């Protein structure tokens, strides 16, 4: 009876030891896990932080530029129709937004042909758009480079594994599978960062495109205002 009880206790300890081993492996924090990917993880992590900083900075900038100033066009229209161009220009200067700078450039050309005014507004609009798109292309570059760096890390890892196998003179399934597990971290990290950068790149581009459409609409409204008989 005692022998049977000892056998039962031994069987009960095996799953418990397995659970404890799994728990120890799961307790690896994120930094330790990433560092197992090798030296290639350093540039991948740098790309992640670079992309994060660019996305947050551009998102805030574009969001602030997208805030609609409801009274701007109304004040400009009132002053233009009243013949107070200096007051309209002063309103634009006090606003200090992309649209106000475009309108200010157009107001400074009042008295010239409409084509000249349109050209001035269009050129100012291109400058404003270039400011908004600053550094967004870097996110596109990160989206392409990060996955490739991850694959490079995995390839170097596989090369190292086969070199260790050759030096050992035999194949140890445990070491090979463990090495692959470690080196696949680089690929997973690179792909994840690449996907995030790709998403961020397109989010910012969509925000800029919506803002451009609104600026073009307001510019057309301003040109129509100058074409009115009383302007």
Automatic annotation (TrEMBL):
Domain MotA/TolQ/ExbB proton channel: 96-216
Main location class: membrane
Signal peptide interval: none
Chain segments annotated as transmembrane: 39-60, 136-161, 181-204
Topological type in the membrane: Multi-pass membrane protein
Compartment(s) of residence: Cell membrane; Membrane
GO biological process: protein import
Protein name, entry field: Biopolymer transporter ExbB
């Amino acid at each position: 009876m005692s022998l049977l009880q000892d056998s039962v206790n031994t069987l009960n300890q095996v799953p418990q030891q397995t659970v404890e081993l799994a728990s120890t492996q799961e307790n690896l924090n994120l930094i330790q896990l990433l560092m197992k990917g090798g030296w290639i993880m350093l540039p991948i992590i740098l790309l992640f932080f670079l992309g994060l900083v660019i996305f947050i900075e551009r998102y805030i900038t574009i969001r602030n530029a997208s805030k609609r100033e409801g009274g701007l066009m109304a004040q400009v229209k009132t002053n233009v129709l009243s013949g107070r161009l200096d007051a309209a220009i002063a309103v634009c200067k006090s606003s200090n937004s992309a649209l106000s700078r475009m309108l200010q450039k157009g107001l400074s050309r009042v008295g010239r042909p409409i084509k000249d005014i349109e050209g001035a507004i269009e050129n100012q609009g291109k400058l404003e758009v270039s400011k908004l798109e600053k550094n967004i292309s870097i996110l596109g570059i990160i989206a392409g480079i990060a996955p490739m760096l991850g694959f490079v890390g995995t390839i170097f890892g596989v090369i190292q594994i086969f070199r260790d196998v050759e030096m050992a003179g035999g194949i140890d399934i445990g070491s090979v599978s463990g090495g692959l597990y470690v080196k696949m971290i680089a690929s997973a990290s690179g792909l994840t960062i690449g996907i995030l950068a790709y998403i961020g790149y397109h989010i910012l581009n969509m925000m800029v495109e919506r803002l451009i459409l609104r600026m073009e609409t307001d510019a057309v409204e301003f040109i129509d205002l100058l074409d009115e008989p009383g302007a």
